[in-house]
Specification:
The protein is of the alpha+beta class. β2 and β3 form a beta hairpin. The longest helix is centred in the first third of the chain and has 14 residues. It is extended and about 50 Å long. The chain starts with 5 loop residues before the first strand and ends with a strand. It has one domain: Pnp Oxidase, Chain A (Roll). A four-stranded antiparallel β-sheet has the order 1-2-3-4, with no helix packed on it.
């Protein structure tokens, strides 16, 4: 969160969904995206060498199929950490499931 100068770090485990529920969830979230946001999933793979012959679409219409690289990941959270970069020293907090989500102040 650049403007807020705040970072969140989430820890947990991936919750596997059955194939049918996974597909329905993907479709629901895909349709909620604006066409411009969907375009990111049609761009070439990040980190690969730039190719001037490959296009970077500006939007993807509602009726286009969902690309395989679009996933919805559900996480069973076990820990949340927040770092606020505004003041000096920075403010760092943690909440852990095993501590009943009690707030812990940490050194930045």
């Amino acid at each position: 969160m650049t403007k807020a100068r705040c970072q969140f770090r989430l820890r947990g485990f991936r919750i596997e969904l059955n194939a049918e529920l996974n597909q329905k969830t993907r479709e629901m979230h895909w349709q909620k995206l604006k066409p411009e946001a969907r375009a990111l999933w049609a761009w070439p793979p990040p980190g690969e060498e730039f190719d001037t012959t490959v296009s970077f679409p500006k939007e993807i219409a509602d009726n286009c199929p969902i690309p395989n690289c679009f996933e919805v990941i559900r996480i069973g959270l076990t820990e949340v950490e927040m770092l606020q970069l505004g003041e000096n020293p920075h403010n760092r907090m943690r909440w852990r499931e095993k501590q009943n989500w009690a707030e812990e102040k940490l050194n930045p």
